[in-house]
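[recover] target loaded
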């Protein structure tokens, strides 16, 4: 009987050692909860980083496209005045943050009689936060002609444009400029998107060369 009693006691001890106490279970649950919370935070952080990277890539692509378009336009600005109905417009006009100018570089491979010049206008819609571009297919147009419109930038929080001659000015022609064909030396744009400010400067020094080449062609 003594042998049987020792055997039963050993069996009870084994069963006790193989289980978990309530404290051990609570500790395990607490550790699991902490690890789960940390894992969710890391996962949420990675998702936010991915979303920011996607937005950054989209903004960068949009900015590159707008910069290249503006650069092409400014390289082809020509000192030729335009006409809208009976009103003569200077070769380049900047007034109330709206820029318009005469541009060369139009090709006519099909010989359709297209004008070699266009009239381009940049404007900013503060309510919709958009920088847009208007294109008229002829320098001399009637008031009923509708331009081709395109959005260059979206989510634009702030926009400022000035001419450089060499001093900065938010208006052109100024009171000292009497020649409708005169151009400033450059254009400076400041654009703020998602709290990041970009400053672009474009030179207009090649306009004489461009107009001579266009006339010779």
């Amino acid at each position: 009987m003594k042998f049987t009693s020792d055997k039963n006691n050993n069996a009870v001890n084994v069963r006790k050692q193989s289980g978990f106490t309530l404290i051990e279970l609570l500790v395990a649950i607490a550790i699991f909860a902490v690890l789960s919370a940390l894992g969710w935070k890391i996962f949420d952080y990675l998702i936010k980083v991915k979303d920011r990277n996607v937005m950054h890539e989209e903004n960068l692509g949009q900015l590159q496209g707008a910069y290249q378009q503006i650069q092409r336009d400014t390289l082809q600005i020509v000192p030729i005045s335009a006409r809208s109905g009976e009103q003569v417009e200077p070769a380049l006009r900047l007034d109330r943050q709206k820029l318009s100018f005469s541009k060369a570089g139009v090709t006519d491979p099909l010989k359709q009689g297209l004008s070699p010049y266009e009239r381009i206008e940049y404007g900013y819609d503060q309510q919709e936060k958009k920088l847009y571009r208007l294109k008229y297919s002829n320098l001399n147009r009637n008031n009923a002609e509708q331009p081709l419109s395109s959005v260059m930038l979206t989510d634009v929080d702030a926009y400022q444009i000035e001419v450089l001659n060499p001093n900065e000015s938010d208006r052109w022609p100024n009171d000292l400029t009497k020649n409708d064909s005169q151009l400033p030396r450059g254009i400076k744009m400041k654009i703020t998107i998602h709290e990041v400010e970009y400053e672009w400067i474009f030179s207009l020094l090649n306009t004489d060369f461009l107009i001579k080449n266009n006339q010779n062609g």
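[recover] notes: The chain has a mean pLDDT of 80.
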